[in-house]
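Q: what does this look like with iron/sulfur cluster bound?
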Amino acid sequence: MARTTVIEGRVWPVVDASGTYLNDVDTDQIYHNAYIAVTDVDEMGRYAFGNLAGWGDFPTKAEPGDILVVGANFGAGSSRQHAVDCFRTLGVAGVVGISFGAIYKRNAVNAGWPLVECPDLLKLELAAGDVLRVNFKTGELENRTRGKLAAARPFSRVQMDVYLAGDLFAYGSSLGGKSAGRLR
Amino acid sequence: MAQTIIEKIIAAHSGDDVFPGATVWLELDVRAARDFGGANVVKNFDRHYTSMPVADAGKTFFTFDCVVPAKDIPYANNQQLCREFAARQGIKVYDVDAGIGSHVLMEEGLARPGGTVVNTDSHMNIVGAIGCLGQGMGDADIAFAFRTGRTWLEVPPSVKVVLKGKYKWPTTAKDVALAMLREFGSSGLLGKAVELYGPAAEVLSVEERITVASMATEMGAIAIFVPPSEEVLAWCEGTAGVEVGGVYADEDASYEATYELDVDGLEPLVACPPSPADVKAVSEVVGKEINSAFFGSCTNGRIDDFRAVGRLMSGRPVAAGVMAYAVPATRRVYGAMLVEGLTAELFGDGFVVSNAGCGGCAQGQIGMTGKDEVQVSTSNRNFPGKQGAGETYLCSPVTAAASALMGTITDPREVA
Ligand code: SF4
């Protein structure tokens, strides 16, 4: 199945009561370690943001195709893959953020879950429910509701290769035998 | 464009543009898994790549080192699972006799200057000691590397650290590593590729470079690269059996920062629990009673380290009530200890001398601590639970030997 490189969806900005983006939301707030033993990805969705004050009901409100919008250093902390997978279970189409924890980014790329870094995120003036269009190839971001634009980092070749294949493992099996190690 | 060491190594192993922040596919000269994580690599591989071959069995290895030989059935099962997979795929196993994987890969000439290596070992970057790029990774990433021969990497920014000055015995390279931790803490070099220069770096032997590079992980660095000296290249040519060339930075390469660290007259240091960055002068902690002393690990398990221990002990016995453990890093080191008489010498001083491996460092069988036990250790981590339930003080082999001799943390200058 060919995957689209442009998505459009309703946004969930992860902000505090005053509308300021939360920074340094760590993997424990995203996915509490009480549920770390869960191995079935289908089950993980219900625990998304379970440990982030005010966000406990996110799993019941999020719709497939929605886009998560986050502040700086999102996903800092432990290496748990659950913190990426819980959103995939809910059908969240991807995450756009000012910056991300390094391991979180690695996990998202490996899972083929779209993650877009946009230091200029604030230019989009996103409010909950606005519709955002994200182009993975060009890095163009558009708040369709308010007509605001921002430029993000487009997917790297690696990120695109893995995303188009599905995930890291699918990308690996798509490569043929011994030539697999050779690069262009 | 002018490039740093890591940029050059990556560029030689990638078709992508290389600059700090770029994400590239990296071709791997060596991909390996240890007994820790290895079984999960096999399970991931078999689940996702059923009946498929690894990309190149000749570049794929298992290196058992964490718990060797296995001390319990789960470890024995995991090791056996790896052996069976290896037999099916035609992969070489450096088995429970071989020693610490990262060291074995260097000794076997598989990790070479300018090369690329991954393993399920967070200290795989230790090969920066010989100018090789090593990275530790999780089991999913390593299964992918087995299958494809590549991994992906975000090119890190490079920084320079210039080591100035001179120090003298009984201060050692371990004290230099601890001095760096004191200076930069556990996050001052976070995510950076560090290059070591300066008079105090240039004179380091292969073994001393290994000690310093082994603690890159504790500093949060991607790796510490020491540009290979003639001596290092000769050592590597001896192990690889072929001519090797070092990879050096371009003169006009650009660095995010340059730091100077003066190690002139450096005194012996100790990292106090619970963090490797909690560094104090040994004089500040002298007198602390110890229960045990661990000699070994990928940081200080080389033959020179055990020679230094022998030199300090000089035939004197370990203090009554103190358990002293010597665990060589590799089978080759173990062999050298036997031939040189060091095993008998340390045995005579009261040490437990074991076969090669990580020992108690990853809760293996030799040197694990019990609750409230105080240990001096030549390893690299003293986080709670890392080497057991007790308190671990990290120091050089010489400081650890002086402490074992006296039964309290001791300044080696007092007894050398
Ligand atoms: S000696 Fe310790 S730090 Fe080094 S590889 Fe073994 S377990 Fe890891």
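The mean pLDDT of chain B is 96. Residues 55 and 149 of chain B are 6 Å apart (CA to CA).
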